[in-house]
Amino acid sequence: MKFRAKATCCMIILMALFFGAGGSALVSIPFHTSLRQEKAAAQDSYRMILNTLQIVNSMDEWDDEKDLSKILEQLSSQDAFSAALQLHSQKEMLYSKGTAAAFLKDLSGQTDTSHLACTVISAPESGYYLQLSGSFFVGKEIYYLDAAYDITSIYEARSQQQELYQQIFIVLIAACACLSYILAYFLTRPLARLSKASREIACGNYDYRSRIRSNDEIGAVSRDFDLMADHLQGSIEELQLSMERQNQFIGNFTHELKTPMTSIIGYADLLRSQTLSREDELDAAKYIFSEGKRLEHLSLKLLDIFVSQNESFSLIHASPAETISNLVTHLQPVLAREEITLEYACEDGYCMLDPDFFGSLLVNLIENARKALTGKDRKNGKGRIKVSSVMTADGCQVKVADNGQGIPQTALSHITEAFYRVDKARSRAQGGAGLGLTLCAEIARLHHGTITFQSEEGRGTIVTVDLKGGRK
Fold it and tell me: Which of 158, 118, 116, 154 minimizes the C-alpha distance to 35?
């Protein structure tokens, strides 16, 4: 059963219970009030007759029962007990009058000279009567007086009220059922939209939203549901992007392995199967050695990335300026042979770093800058790389700037992807595998920081690394 049907049934049941109880009370209370009033009036009239008989008997005792009958005849003609009036002793009936006399009950065992017996009797096709019974002494003998008062009008009024109440009850229940269903429909319609949104998302339509704009609890649930759907869609899109990157990584990795392995196998087979001259043998061995070194370099880069992503490590209190100074001092002679000037300017201070990873970050950035300068038509034959660092509130900021070839704007958003290379031919010739900046981005992430690039083709590149591991 749907919720709106359950709500309708509950409303009908509550309406029936409360209206039934209230209506029954409205019919019953006036009826019993009228019945008490009629009973009080009947008892007053009955006592008047009974007192009259006792007064007359005390003034002049009756010698003949016929005298009682005559007095009752006179009293009944002026009294309200026209329905029935009956006088009898324990032996015989002395007087009986009225249409309801045949239905009177024997209440002699329930009354005495000081108490009245009272009951309601119903006569088929005649109506309802209030019977009063009492007793008195005539001489030494006890007599019983039974009287019936017509109260049919009270019961007829109650029957009319009950009939009217039933008609109103049916109309109200029908109206309540219709209004309750309409109300339940409008109240539960947002739930139907939520249910549809759930089914749509379950079927793969992740863009579908319930978008219920109400300020009640259902609206709050809808907003939470849509927020959950947004996060779910974002997670799915991120997962899909990750899978695409993983597939691209596997494809690029396979390609990187295939080319050198094909050459190595080809030259090895040539050395194994043919007799070559000394010069050809040296050329083949040199090529096998260079391709093997490139594979070694590739495997070491991948190992560094794997370690940075999976190995747990702790940052220590270290000086970025000291690490940069030591590294630059060792690299300056090497770069000088390629007519590249390596400079540095560092602010003193300490922050939380992993020195090994920080050194690897600097080496890769300087190496990338060197490759950008190699083969460039440099003015005055000079290339320049400058490393600088400043301390920040939550760590340090390192910049590596060069006056090399620069990076196209279309490539800036991809250069940290694994195996991505701006100039594939130049990178391969220089032994690059497209993993250096990927490792740099991962090291920045491990220090809770970021890496950004500013570049202009033909003028150079500035790489900015914000490391936010903290100052202490």
Answer: 154
The token duo for 55 is 């007064």
Burial class (CB within 10 angstroms; exposed 0-12, middle 13-18, buried 19+) of 95: buried
Q: What are phi and psi of 321, to 5 degrees?
A: -60, -40
Give the pLDDT confidence score for residue 427 in this predicted structure.
47
Q: What distance in Å separates the CA atoms of residue 210 and residue 268, rounded to the nearest whole number?
A: 65
Count of residues in the chain: 472
CB 447 within 8 A of CB 354: yes
* DSSP-derived 3-state class of residue 71: helix
Taking only the tens place, the pLDDT of each residue in 143-181 is 888 888 888 889 899 899 889 988 998 998 899 889 888
pLDDT of residue 380: 43
Q: What is the pLDDT of residue 320?
A: 92
Q: In sequence order, what are the residues at sequence separation of 6 or more whose Cβ sits closer than 8 angstroms to the Cβ of residue 396?
A: 320, 349, 351, 353, 389, 390, 467
Give the HSE-up count for residue 273: Cα atoms under 13 Å, Cβ half-sphere: 6
Count of beta carbons in the 10 Å neighbourhood of residue 9: 15
Both tokens of 201, joined, read 């998302």
- Mean per-residue pLDDT pooled into runs of 10, the chain (472 residues): 81 87 88 90 84 71 61 64 79 82 84 83 84 82 85 90 90 89 83 83 82 79 85 85 71 60 77 78 79 68 61 79 89 84 92 84 85 62 87 92 84 69 49 66 85 86 91 76
Q: What is the DSSP string of 163-208?
A: HHHHHHHHHHHHHHHHHHHHHHHHHHHHHHHHHHHHHHHHTT-TT-
Do the Cβ atoms of 89 and 142 come closer than 8 Å? yes
Question: What b/e string do you get for 328-354 counting C-beta neighbours within 10 Å, with b at 16 or more?
Answer: beebeeebeeeebebebebeeebbbbb
Distance in angstroms (rounded) separating the CA atoms of residues 228 and 230 = 5
State the Cα–Cα distance between residues 277 and 274, nearest whole angstrom.
10
C-alpha radius of gyration, the chain, whole number: 56
- DSSP per-residue codes, 412-457: TTTTTSTT--SSHHHHHHTT--S-HHHHHHHHHHHTT-EEEEEEET
Is residue 387 within 8 A of residue 398, CB to CB? The reply is yes
Q: Which residues contact 40 (CB under 8 A, 6 or more apart)?
A: none
